[in-house]
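Write out the 3D structure for:
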Amino acid sequence: QVQLVEFGGGLVQAGKSLTLSCTVSGGAFSGYSMAWFRQASGGEDRSFVSLIAWTGGNTYYADSVKGRFTISRDNAKNTVYLQMNSLRLEDTAVYYCAADFGPGSYYDYDYDYWGQGTQVTVSS
């Protein structure tokens, strides 16, 4: 059984940084493309944030986070990270990591496994 657990959420001031991590157990982590999605309070859908392919060589970002967020992975630790810099009020959301046993995509319905989410709150 594949399980994803996110760590690192919290309350942070605007302009500061925060790093999220997501550890995967029960599966072949190196074969998964990993992504981060987020859902704002009251939001209808989870929106794409970032994706790192199973090869680790290709990364993708939503326009709203490009240049501020960095996704990376450590296959030896079965962990994917999201380094978030220059945080803004609008980054406040529950952040979810997701795994796809394939190339990954910008759409949440393409992902096979999900974590429980971690709250990130950016204050002014």
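The two ends are 40 Å apart (CA to CA).
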